[in-house]
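Researcher: Sequence recovery benchmark, item below. Answer with residues only.
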């Protein structure tokens, strides 16, 4: 892994984001990367009917999918293949139907074999909806 962020191929970052966005699940869920840089990615999704649970509230899995999408791109933005090994999420507020929600993932530790990513999900007004911690393993 390059320790100097300037050594990361910026074209590769765009390729990672495009590959993530065109995956069948991302297409189904409406997930999209809006920004990426070494160690950081921002994803968004607009909450619609496919994201609600039996109580007509946004399903926790939809929020987790958004966090995972941002995390996967941030983790893979350092020039090595990364996979999530474990995670936990704290839900604070449920987004409204029609609202665009944003997940920001930041790699806070990147060791030889493992890393740690923090993900925060906010609504359009900047209110925190959920926070997530994820562990990653680097395969290369």
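Model:
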């Amino acid at each position: 892994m390059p320790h100097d962020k300037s050594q990361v191929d910026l074209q590769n970052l765009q390729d990672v984001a495009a590959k993530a966005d065109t995956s069948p699940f991302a297409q189904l869920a409406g997930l999209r990367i809006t920004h990426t840089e070494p160690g950081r990615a921002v994803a968004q999704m607009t909450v619609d009917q496919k994201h609600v649970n039996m109580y007509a509230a946004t399903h926790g899995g939809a929020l987790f999918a958004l966090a995972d999408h941002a995390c996967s791109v941030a983790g893979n933005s350092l020039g090595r293949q990364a996979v999530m090994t474990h995670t936990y999420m704290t839900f604070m507020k449920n987004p409204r139907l029609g609202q665009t929600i944003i997940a920001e993932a930041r790699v806070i530790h990147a060791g030889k074999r493992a890393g740690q990513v923090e993900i925060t999900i906010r609504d359009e007004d900047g209110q925190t909806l959920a926070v997530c911690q994820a562990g990653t393993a680097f395969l290369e």
